[in-house]
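Task: sequence in, structure out. Protein: DUF4383 domain-containing protein.
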Amino acid sequence: MLKLWSQIYGGVLTLIGIAGFFLSSNESLQLTLTHNLIHLVSGLIYLGASLKENWDRLAMRVFGILYGLLAVYGLFSNQLFGLVNITLTTEIFNFIVACGALYLGFVHERISQKQEKKEQANT
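Result:
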């Protein structure tokens, strides 16, 4: 299940990274080369991690923490080291990616394991 989610995250982030090169920036979505590359590399790492056992969980945890830190940092600044403009849209996106990745990386597996143990106990 986690492999599928890593592929979904990887696909979406990769597409966003590629699309960013072709979309024009506006007030709510200020895309830069760095911003596009961050999404592209994140997506490709997710896709690569989905190919190895347990790497998908590690990718979810690492990127959940990183995107979470970006979301918190964005509350206090409108730029990331002068390379990426942080807008409300990017802030919401980072928050959603972080929450989903943290849930999948830390919580989802435990819930699945508990359900499996319950099912085994019932048989």
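The longest strand covers residues 79-80.
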